[in-house]
Amino acid sequence: MGQETSEKIARLEREIDELKKENERLRRLLEEALRSAKRQAAPFSRQGPKAHAQKPGRKADCQYGQQCRRPIPRSVDEVIDVLLPGRCPHCGGGVQERGIVSQYQTEIPEPRVKRIEFRIQMGCCRRCRRRVQGRHPRQTSDAIGSAASQLGPRALALATQLNKGLGLPYGKTAAVLEEAFGLRVSRGGLCQAIARVAHKGEPTYQALLEQIRGSPSVTPAETGWKVGGKLWWMWAFSTAQVTVYAIQLGRGFEQSARVLGADESRVITPIFHIRTLKDATVMSRFVPWSNKG
After folding, report:
1. What is the mean pLDDT of residues 37-41?
2. Helix pair 170-181, 187-200: axis angle to 10 deg
3. Where are the domains of the chain?
């Protein structure tokens, strides 16, 4: 083997080593990029510390930022007198009173479940002989018998807000009600109760639809929404006063017409995709858009 061949082999081996090192470096960078793209919970960090990190905490003087403090309540429900101790806690000497100062505390009242019994008068019609029963405004249903024990309107409103407004699943919504108020309810019971709330809200929803359809300008938008593991679309239709949502199977003219109707004279600003529900409420400008487009 000649000297030239040996030098060539040595050069190729060096290049192979350099390529292996470069490959390993790129692999690490790829793993870090994939790892940083995933959501991580605190206290884990996605990247290393900064070389010249700023000092933590509030800045001094004019860089402190907006100063806020809890306002003193306008009304007080309870006054508690806090007496001086008989002896100084530091040296045991006598204590002399010099005045009284006030401290305020805003507290949540102790939650408790209120159980109400409705004693319903039952009767029948003298003409058609059908059953007739009384109804109180605080009742949430006419059901009796095996379905006589129900949730009250405040409990239903809180459960609906936790599940639909804040996005808690039924299991966590039931856990909040039990831990905070001692109110035990099953996930299936919550699902059925919230479905009944939606049924009672149907007239209000229809009134909002009529208001949207009567508006001269509307901003529609849609984003993906899973129903039973399948892709549907959550539509948002906004005016300056109202926003109406509709979860539908498609994202075309047929679905928009179910909400808006086929009104060719309406001015529509298309937002072809939204990332958050708040995007649908932004109405920056209106441009003509054909419903057939």
Report:
1. 59
2. 100
3. 147-200, 212-281
